[in-house]
Amino acid sequence: MTRSARRLGGLLASALMLVGVTALPTMAVADAGRPVAARAPAIFVDSLSFVVAAISPTLVTATGPATLTISGTMTNTRDEPLTDVIARVQRGDALKSPDELAAELASPGNPETTWSDFVDVVPLIDPGATVPFSIQAPLYGALRDTLAVTEPGVYPIMVNVNANFASAPSQNGARIGEVHLLLTVASIKAPQSAEPSDPTQPTVPTVPTGPASPPAAGTRQGVNLVLPLVDRPHRDPTGAFFDDDLAASIRPGGRLDAVLSAAESASLIPGATTLAVDPALLEDLTLMSTGYTVGPFVLDLTRVEAAASTSASISTSTSASISAGTGAPTTGPSSTTSSSTSPSSTSPGPSTTGGPSPVAGTMSGSGGATATAPDTYVPVPGPTAVPGTGTQSAVDFLARIRVLAAKTPVLVLPYSDTDGVAVVRANLTSFLTGNIARGRTVATDVLGSAANLVTDVAWPVGGLVDAATLDAYRRSGQNAALISQDSLKATPTAATALLRTPSGTVDAIVAAPGMPTGAGAINTLAAATAINFFSNISRSAVFAAERQWQPDSAGLAALSGLLAQLRDAGMVSGVDLQSVIRQSPAGEDAVSYPGSAAATELNPDFLERLQSDLTTLSSVQAVFTPTGTVAPGDQATTAPGDLFADLINGVRRQASAGFRSEPVAANTSMGAIAPLVDQVEAGVWITPPQGRFTLTSNSSPLLVTVRNDLPYNAHVVIRFNLLDASRAGVTIDNNAVRDIPAGRTVQILVPATITRSGTFTLRTQLAAPDGRLWGAQQTLTLTSTAYGAFTLWMIIVAAVVLVLTSARRIYLRGKERKLRIAQGLQ
Questions:
Q1: Which of 308, 304, 141 lies closest to 208 in space, CA to CA?
Q2: CB < 8 Å & 24+ apart, contacts of 789-792
Q3: Contact present, 433 and 346 (Cβ < 8 Å)
């Protein structure tokens, strides 16, 4: 069975799953003249295409309109004009079960139980032209003149459009388009009989004017709308805001403002809303609310040294952690970055007038925690940073979230809405598990103890997940997951399913894709809800909007209006996710990750870059980790805390699914790592040698001068190019770790064994204890006048060979002379 067929088959069985189309598919079938029974044999496919904009009433009730109105636009897809366009609405018999509804949705029939009169729509539609339409049909009255509704139910209906055109088989008109919809009737007024004008004819019902019929009996359905308050990261790994786009999004009229407004709407039925929030967004808003800048940070080591000398306690900035550091001294190697110099000491840091951070001690680069100066670098805005524009908007937006969180469940996503499947595939599972834990902490700190946080339900991006990722969620304490039916192997038959993983079982909430705000989607939702109600089938429905959802105010108003009507009719009530989980699952199922979903994940090359940057930062951190006993009070020897902890957390933030469709922003953000590493490495460097060195013995050491301009002791290895050493006949210890005190220049004698004399060059470079090369290379020019053991042996061997050769030559000459004398030759 294909996946699309499974989607259709599970439409009703898995929590009112929705066919997300503006209108059901249409077929253009010829109709010779207006009588339905007189059909022309020709079939005209795609003569018209339709967009249904509104259907009123969506739910027929005793107090609602007595006329059905369907409006939208139609487009002539033929290459000839359509003239005298007319239309009517036809109704079929009531559908009796969810299965019949599913069959009607899959293959719409030709409803002919009754129909309204044809009405004029438009006199002419030119080829390719689009025109508006509005078609009305009385809901009550006589058969063959109205839709003649007499009792609650779900009815198939069809808009039948006829027209004339040159190539038609006759000039009596032909059916050139159909729109298939559903008419959902919750209650009607009791009809009154009209006296027939002809006594031989039966009495026919007229428009009802009597008392309302009692509500139909059935089983109430639960409904929940999951609204995502999610955006891509706006801070780079150093914590600096690299754009101010978030400010625009939270202002009135912005996308996130629209999402929050939808969740705040008083028209939504109580208990029917869940707000899904990315904790990294909460963190960004908190930073913005206390004043922030937009632009790169730089590293001000001068501030650290000054604070360390007085042991003063400082509050780290409300912006983010480490970024490009101070440059090397003017006598050292030049930096490779544009931010190679520290900002002036007068460069103001972010405002902290907002009082203690509500996320103290937890936020990556937020600086909410207070730290003693020797234990941290102090990031400050660089010379190109500008004040952010969203401070007051962030204050207001956070206040609204906190008010809403006290009365509406908040589904806590992993920190930065991690692209779970992508990172697990890339063997970066710790990105997901670590960010789940971090997300809980940040959300709790920002929203407070009064917030109704849901921390044990996972919601993978798009509701799609594979088995390994689901297990990672499970091992992180998320025992339930909001899953799309496209991520299940079997066709779902209920709102929940049980999924088994190596670490235990997961309760799956089967979510309908998208938010039903289009006219066609809302029409189908009304029918699916009612058919379950009338059939006494209890199936909760959870609708989850896509992550970057852009709310449609008119569509949301229509949806909330429908839900309110269904509630008033006794058909639905709000249900929270925990209540859905407690419903009995249909049975065990297994996840099936769609192959097409892999194409939308974060690029594997980008994730490999993140891993490489983390490895680099860990290596740099190791340079400042003490290798021996630390003397009490020795601030320079004491390890500088987790020097790069905030930065490492910042890198993990970059695994956000929000970067899936914005590679430029992703690469811009990650570009902050290399300048930082370059600047820190520039603080510990080999000074350029002056002139050449003369070695006078075979064990003469090599002199290397190392300068440490950082306020912490560094532990590095001096590495020599092995190919250079081999050519020069020099053997060197390339693995010894050297301690370089803070703020000192140290001359280091590197033991070496020289086996030949002459002039040669050796390239040398620092390395971290793990072997990662550090900084730029320097070249030593050496002149050796020493004879090593190998050279001496070569001389001795050469001398012996020379003596033996000379002796043999003398012997041969003497022997030859004697022979010549014996032969009488001179």
A1: 141
A2: 789/698, 789/755, 790/729, 790/755, 790/756, 791/698, 791/755, 791/756, 791/757
A3: no
Work out whether the CA dihedral 186, 225, 600, 12 comes out positive or negative.
negative
For residue 570, the number of C-alpha atoms closer than 13 Å in the C-beta half-sphere is 10
For residue 748, the one-letter residue type is I
Distance in angstroms (rounded) separating the CA atoms of residues 798 and 70: 109
Whether 372 shows a pLDDT value over 50: the answer reads: no
Q: How far is CA 222 from CA 11, 183, 541, in A?
A: 16, 21, 6
Token look-up 């990315």 returns 278
Q: In the prediction, which pLDDT does 757 show?
A: 79
- C-alpha 523/C-alpha 59 separation (Å) is 8
pTM of the model: 0.79
Distance (Å, whole) CA 19 – CA 94: 20
Q: CB of 50 within 8 A of CB of 132?
A: no
pLDDT in the model for residue 608: 95
pLDDT at 370 over 60: no
Non-local CB neighbours of 784 within 8 Å, separated by 6+ positions? 694, 695, 700, 728, 754, 756, 757, 758, 759, 760
84 contacts 122 by C-beta, under 8 angstroms: no
pLDDT band at residue 314, thresholds of 50, 70 and 90? very low
| Beta bridge mates, 174 | 163
Cis peptide before 57 (omega within 30 of 0): yes
pLDDT digits over 520-536, tens only?
A: 999 999 999 999 999 99
**148, amino acid identity:** A
Compute the distance between CA of residue 13 and CA of residue 577 in angstroms, rounded to an integer.
18
Strand order in the sheet with 693-695: 693-695, 773-784, 758-767, 714-720, 737-740
For 210, the enclosing helix (H) or strand (E) is none
Give all strands (DSSP E) within 671-744, no chain letters.
684-686, 693-695, 702-708, 714-720, 730-732, 737-740
CB 511, CB 543: distance < 8 Å: yes
Total number of residues shown for the chain = 826
Across the chain, mean pLDDT equals 80
Task: Give me the pLDDT at residue 562, please.
Answer: 94
Q: Which of 539, 596, 702, 551 is nearest to 98 (CA)?
A: 539
Alpha helices in 476-571 (DSSP H): 519-534, 553-568
Tens digits of per-residue pLDDT, 464-493?
999 999 999 999 999 999 999 899 988 777
Q: Taking residues 450-477, report their average pLDDT.
A: 96
Nearest alpha carbon to residue 182 among 223, 217, 147: 147
Take residue 685 and report the two structure tokens written for it: 């460097």
**Distance between CA atoms of residues 457 and 577, nearest Å:** 9
Instruction: Indicate if the pLDDT at residue 376 is higher than 60.
Output: no
Q: What confidence tier does 183 reach under pLDDT thresholds 50, 70, 90? A: very high
The b/e string for 224-243 (b: 16+ C-beta within 10 A; e otherwise) is: bbbbbbbbbbbbbbbbbbbb
